[in-house]
Amino acid sequence: MSLRDLLVAAGPTILLVGIACFVAYLLVDPAPPRQVRLATGQEHSAYEAFGTQYAKELKRDGIVVSLQPSLGSQENLERLQRGQADIAFVQSGSTSEEQAGKLGLVSLGSLFTEPVWLFLRDTVKTNNLTGLRGLRINLGPEGTGVPTLFRQVLSVNGVEPNELTIGALENTPATVELLAGRIDGLVFSSAPEAPLIQMLLQTPGIRLFNFSQAEAYTRRLPFLTHVTLPRAIVDLGRDIPAQDYHLIAPTATLVAREDLHPALVDLFVKAAVEIHGGAGWFQQQGQFPSPKYTEIPVSDEAAKYYRDGPPFLQRYMSFWLANLFDRLWVVVVALAALVIPLSKIVPPLYVWRVRSRVYRWYGELRAVEQAWEGVVDEQREIVRADLLRRLDEIEESVNHISIPLAYADGLYGLRGHINIVRQRVAADPAALPAGGLAE
Fold first, then answer.
1. What CA–CA distance (Å, rounded) separates 1 from 408?
2. Confidence class of residue 407 from pLDDT cuts 50, 70 and 90?
3. What is the pLDDT of residues 95-108, one digit of tens each?
4. What pLDDT does residue 430 have?
5. Residue 411: its H or E element
6. Cα atoms found within 13 Å of the Cα of residue 243, Cβ hemisphere only
7. What's the confidence (pLDDT) of residue 4?
8. CA angle 305, 95, 153 (to 5 degrees)
9. Helix (H) or strand (E) holding 314
10. What is the mean pLDDT of residues 257-276?
11. SS3 of 122, please?
12. Which residues contact 187 (CB under 8 A, 6 or more apart)?
């Protein structure tokens, strides 16, 4: 075989197959982006803290998570709708299944419960939400999910929002106002890991409201669950808190645009398992993350992950290598579609290219023979010398032809035919048979 001839003959086919595979690799199943935007929450909130953990987890797989602070769930939903974020933390009850479908949003699962924390100054003695009438209570900015949520809670107690002095400060300045005595209470809806929650649970002069009717709230507002803050969970030595507290809690969910790359869905669910899969104040080991407790439809990729675990290749390979092999089936299809028909073209092209090295000299040899046939007797001796010299040049060139052994018979046949023409030119015409080599 002649490698050079084979490459030249197969070159166009190889190039065409390569281009087809490259186009299939890029367009049919594009690679996941290396950067994703995650909308979190307010400063010092649980959303902000967990967003930092997600960024660290995905950085191990070469994905840069750009954190976008926000006021909360409502603003996060708006950012997803406008395409300003790819994924976000959203509180259950912030939207509906129908609205989520219209906005093109899917859930990657619920992550943790977000109890409604109502912190009051010790001077406020009420044990019922009807006792909040006339008090100064901060619910947070409208971009969060808390104002909408707590208004529903007040409504089932027969309390109208205009019966309170409602504040719209963010969490940190609202906490400052509460500690300074300028407001009577504030409402958070956050995981207990939030720094402000941890601080207020241990601050003298501030008490946590006990939702003793929590089970009834879950019947009236189905997106809420009843959770219990155990006695001494904050500090066993100091017995903080000094009693069990009943709380009502929506759940935090990870919501994404439906066009988020499937590989990134797997990565975020995997990170959620690492971050939220342990036991906590309000959850058992392995209870979260979960495809339950969310009104937003769970994406197919996330549901498959919860059902079957991580993709097979990602269990044994790095994310990018597993993703590469997972996408190679597209290339295999492209190869099968092109290589099979084109493979029938390459062998004839190869044979033609090899044999053409010999066949081109037959044209030169035929030109010499025709020149000799047209010579008149008076010029025969002069032309004979020129033609013999030309035949020597042809033979010299033929002797330097490189040809695979499988096709050497054509080369030796050519050399024999050169010798026949030489004999005809050199000999007396009367001694040769009529017709010459052509015959």
1. 11
2. confident
3. 888 899 899 999 99
4. 44
5. helix 408-426
6. 9
7. 62
8. 115
9. none
10. 93
11. coil
12. 116, 117, 118, 119, 137, 138, 139, 140, 146, 150
Q: What share of the chain is helix, strand, coil (3-state, %, to 5)?
A: 50, 15, 35
Q: Is 424 left (phi over 0), alpha (psi -120 to 50) or beta?
A: alpha
Q: Which domains does the chain have, with CATH numbers?
A: 31-112+252-310 (3.40.190.10), 115-249 (3.40.190.10), 346-431 (no CATH)
Q: What is the DSSP letter of 26?
A: I
Tens digit of pLDDT for each residue in 268-325?
999 999 999 988 878 888 889 999 888 899 999 999 999 998 887 788 888 777 776 7
Whole-number Å distance between alpha carbons of 268 and 98: 24
- Judge if pTM exceeds 0.90: no
CA 333-339-340 angle, 5° bins? 95
Q: 272 is written with which tokens?
A: 């959620």
> Given this model, what pLDDT does residue 186 score?
96
The structure tokens listed for 400 are: 């330097």
Distant-in-sequence, close-in-space partners of 140: CB < 8 Å, separation ≥ 6: 42, 71, 72, 146, 147, 168, 169, 170, 171, 174, 186, 187, 188
Separation between Cα atoms, residue 11 and residue 331, nearest integer Å: 19
Coil, helix or strand for 344? coil
Other CB atoms within a 10 A radius of the CB of residue 34 amount to: 10
**Angle value at C-alpha 317, between 311 and 319, nearest 5 degrees:** 70
